[in-house]
Amino acid sequence: MMLQALRGDDPQAAAVVAVITALDADVLVLTGLDYDLRGDTLAALADRLAASGAPYPHRLPLRPNTGVATGLDLDGNGRLGEPRDAMAYGRFAGEGGMAVLSRLPIDVAALRDFTGFVWADLPRNLRPPDTPAGQLLSTAGLYEVPIRLPDGRSLRLLPYYATPPVFDGPEDRNGRRNHDETAFWLRLLAGELPIPPPDPPFVLLGQPNLDPMDGEGLTDAIHALLAHPALQDPAPRGTNSRSDTGQQGDPALDTALYATLGGLRVEQILPSVDLDVLASGVLWPPDTDPLAAVLAAASRHRPLWVDLRF
Fold first, then answer.
1. What is the secondary structure of 272-295 as a DSSP string?
2. What is the arithmetic mean of pLDDT over 57-77?
3. How many domains would you assign to the chain?
4. Which residue of 87, 143, 215, 259 has the lowest C-beta tally within 10 Å?
């Protein structure tokens, strides 16, 4: 469906292309992009971007766990093969994954894929007692993607895209999984996993799908990540002057706008402390800016950016 939209005249696809073109980033991590084995969806997006004057010659689709069949009735409704019975919610394998677009080379040979990490293997995990033994932790991916810098070094991207901490029952399965998808990085950085921690410099980024101040969810892990001594939080801010009555967080830090919840900070870019951050922001201009309507047409989410000096 997404591939058809990108190859056609879908207005949302056109808005996405316009937003990415306006962002003008050297390296992009995209969330919510359908994965397919040949990378046709990402290639279609890259073709549209190149035609709009924003070429990204290096691209990498990242396989998610969404829609991967388990053969189990995970939601207990007596039926198999439904979206909630998959390893992560998905109407088909690969729905709503991640991808990297880059103007710099991607060292695919050195990529590390943690998407197959089993939830039960995470120290001090919060999984419900009835979770199947083979349940994977990741929803839409846990990766290390090395980007080759002009000086020959590598910048390691650590992208992830967690499940929303809602749409479950009193067992809080999604809330617990959301927490532990972030806690994975805490355990990795602490050397508590049978996986070597990433070598700096690196940037942990993506969609934790959890606001540290507002909305639902278990916030211990995201607070710990934002305060981690190996990371720095540039606290990217938008320039829209909107406000949310009753919320605790600074609305300038919000990265998404929900019809019933208001604005939430559900995306992060956290460079390692050895990196020199020149500037950062959320591409969320005042409503009077012509780009504001394009952003709203593209997604409820707004792009974050960080400018680094090497």
1. BTTSEEEEEEE----TTSHHHHHH
2. 94
3. 1
4. 259
